[in-house]
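Support request, please re-run this one:
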Amino acid sequence: MRVLLAAALLPLCAARADYLDRPEAARLLSLLQTQYGFTAADLDVVKAALKQAHPLPQLIDAERNSKERTLSWDEYRALHVNAANIANGLRFLDEQKLWLARAEAQYGVPPEVIAALLGVETKYGAYTGRVRVLDALATQGFDHPTRAAFFFDQLAQFFVLCRDQHLDPTRPLGSYAGAMGEAQFMPSAWRRLAVDFDGDGRVDLWSAPDAIGSVANYLVSYDPQRAWQRGEPLLATASAPSARPATLTPNLKYATYRFAQLRKDGIDTEAWFPDAQPVGLVELERADGPEYWIALPNFYAVMAYNPRVFYAMAVTELAAALKQAQSAPPGALESAAR
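Re-run finished. Output below.
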């Protein structure tokens, strides 16, 4: 497995927290032993790693102030739906067309959607993170003021992953939250949903084929209530009354409504849907007022990957731009990005 080294990226003055002396460490070691069958030798590896872990409190600030939380939609969109990301996405679609076609055949997820998700996550693998996963998950799992339980579980899952994949836990690099590889999987998602798509006998999310197959498998398998539906769109443009009806709540995480209810409350679209079609309502603040979209189950499949509306919208719009650009004449990238 291609794992990048982190030693040169650690601040020279970084202090060690000696997480092994923390009360939570005993609970972690017990969990790994009783629930995951860690041997004494396995636990010695964990103990040594915890003694080497560095506290990076700035990562907690980064997690609590992520761009999906702090930017406007127009600002966030510009980071991902732009001429450079479209051009690089077209290159990725061409270079990985065989793996993308295989993923679509097996899972039903179109190439442009997989590419767009990887484009938003890591710019098609160009930026997979520069923080040691050990440091990120130890910091977040031991010291995060509101989400420590989630990250503590991810730290445990990381040690299980390292044991099972024969990885040195002090070496993998990832994001401030401990996400890894071109697909930015958290350890629990890696263990449950990552696939050896190229059949080389190992699951390597730093390789494009495994990242492609794993993204498609994630969208289909992560949450049965939000599973990707083959051949279905993600969004439909919507018209709405000047004031959104109080009976409708936008920007939820599931397709909560039926199309008939939205239409009854004045939300409509030129696309045809049966009255019983599960839908949701997306509301985006724009300079000239709110913009509305009817969200379909596949939009919520993308939200299962990252539960932020801005994220799912960026993936959806980048996918649409990539699909449009594939058949556009040369020089049309700027218009596709608008």
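The radius of gyration is 21 Å. The chain has a mean pLDDT of 92.
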